Amino acid sequence: MDRQAQHEQQLDRLASAPDPGSPSPFAAFGMPGFGGPPSAAPPEPRPIMELDGEEREDELDALSDWVDDFLLPVYGAEVTTAAPWCLQWQEHDDVVAWLHALWLAYQQHKDPEAGLSGLFVWHRDFLTHAVAAIRSPGGPLSACMTSPDRAAHRLLPGPPPSARTEKATADAWAPAEPAEPDEPTS
């Protein structure tokens, strides 16, 4: 009877929720624990153009390190009229947006969870297209350096706002029409 009581107590312990302070019984096997609160998910990446202030500066610094230390030495190729570049690329918002998206994709595809073909997928689906868009002869850097011997930087003006935006802005700043005076009643 004592043995049966011990078995019942052991079954009760096993059936109850684990103590949050106790280590996982599966840790010795390299398995995550079951039950308890789920682990916190990593923060979702945000496009750099949605960041402000110090958060944007920190992200731009990290992006610049990746571009200068990895992307350009490996994939930079020669600067020509067919493949312009700009030493001040950080001032071209569209280039920053492209490179940031490329960097985020690189981080995702180099992760072991991406599998053995992860970096191939990054090259095929992301790198080739992004570099072609950024460094095309008519692209955002076309007014910048086209020869390594002549550093140049010029921001190209974008298109004007749409007619609808122009009208809304004009209406917001237009003075209110004076109200007509009330007619006297006699």
Give the total of beta strands: 0
What best-fitting shape do the alpha-carbon axes yield? elongated
The arrangement of helices and strands along the chain is: HHHHH
Query: Low-confidence segments, ≥5 residues, pLDDT <50?
Result: none
Structural class: mainly alpha
Largest sheet: none
Could you tell me how far the N terminus lies from the C terminus, measured between alpha carbons in angstroms?
Answer: 110 Å
> Counting H and I runs of at least 4 residues, what is the number of helices?
5
In what range is the share of β-strand residues?
Answer: under 5%
Return Rg in Å: 30 Å
- Average per-residue pLDDT, rounded, comes to 82
Share of helix among residues? 40-55%
What does this molecule look like?
The chain is 45% helix and 0% strand. By secondary structure, the chain is mostly helical. The longest helix has 23 residues, at 53-75. It is elongated and about 90 Å long.
List keywords for this structure.
186 residues; mainly alpha; 45% helix; 0% strand
Secondary-structure blueprint:
Layout: H1 2-15, H2 53-75, H3 93-110, H4 118-134, H5 163-173
Helix pairs in contact: 2-3, 3-4
Concise structural overview:
By secondary structure, the protein is mostly helical.
